[in-house]
């Protein structure tokens, strides 16, 4: 049986996997090199994203951008941490999807914040594309945030179904 505290190991695990993957890429893949893994679909690259998701704010002044992005990251991480701690204390009223989603988002946010604080940019290396269309490069932390967000959506859908079926939420 899964312990209610199992999600507490997810953030440090995500952070560790993110750091290991970024250090490996930074030490073995030259900046802007591309290694095709699956032709027409997936490559390993080495890029640095100075902005937020999809490169938003990458052209803003470095000082303003970093202060803003670090501040927002810290605020969001604090909010997510409070929600996660609350969900771990009250297992009967929170699903595993919620706890896992919050833990993944927190771990991913810490991983990207680490890069931003140390160098002012985030190392990205996973590049998916189809023909001439490509998704912006991303990393393990971004993946954890995306999967975590999907888990949070699943939790909301599940809770909506429970509520509409007349099953009250236990506090």
Any overview of this molecule?
Helix 1 (10-28) runs parallel beside helix 3 (96-119), helix 2 (62-89) runs antiparallel to helix 3 (96-119) and helix 3 packs antiparallel against helix 4. A four-stranded antiparallel sheet has the order 1-2-3-4. The protein has helices spanning 10-28, 62-89, 96-119, 140-164, and strands at residues 34-38, 42-49, 122-130, 133-134. The two termini are 21 Å apart. The protein is of the alpha+beta class and 171 residues long. It has one domain.
User: What percent strand?
Assistant: 5-15%
Structural class designation: alpha+beta
Q: How widely separated are the two ends?
A: 21 Å
The number of strands is 4
- Roughly how many Å is the radius of gyration? 18 Å
The average pLDDT value, as a whole number, equals 85
**Strand sequence of the main sheet, in spatial order?**
1-2-3-4
- Estimate percent helicity: 55-70%
> How many domains, in number, for the residues?
1
Give the overall form.
Answer: globular
Main sheet, how many strands, which sense, barrel? Answer: 4 strands, antiparallel
Helix tally?
A: 4
What order do the SSEs take from the amino end to the carboxyl end, as H and E? Answer: HEEHHEEH
* Low-confidence parts: none
């Amino acid at each position: 049986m899964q312990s209610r505290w199992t999600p507490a190991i997810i953030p440090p695990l995500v952070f560790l996997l993110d750091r290991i993957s970024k250090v490996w890429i930074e030490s073995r893949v030259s900046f802007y090199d591309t290694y095709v893994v699956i032709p027409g679909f997936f490559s390993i690259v080495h890029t640095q994203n100075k902005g937020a998701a999809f490169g938003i704010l990458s052209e803003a002044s470095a000082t303003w951008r970093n202060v803003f992005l670090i501040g927002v990251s810290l605020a969001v991480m604090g909010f997510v941490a409070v929600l996660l701690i609350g969900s771990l204390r009250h297992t009967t009223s929170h699903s595993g999807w919620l706890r896992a989603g919050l833990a993944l988002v927190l771990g991913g946010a810490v991983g990207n914040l680490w890069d931003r604080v140390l160098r002012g940019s985030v190392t990205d290396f996973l590049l998916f594309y189809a023909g001439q269309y490509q998704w912006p490069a991303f990393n393990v932390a971004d993946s954890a945030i995306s999967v975590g967000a999907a888990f949070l959506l699943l939790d909301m859908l599940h809770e909506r179904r429970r509520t509409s079926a007349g099953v009250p939420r236990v506090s």
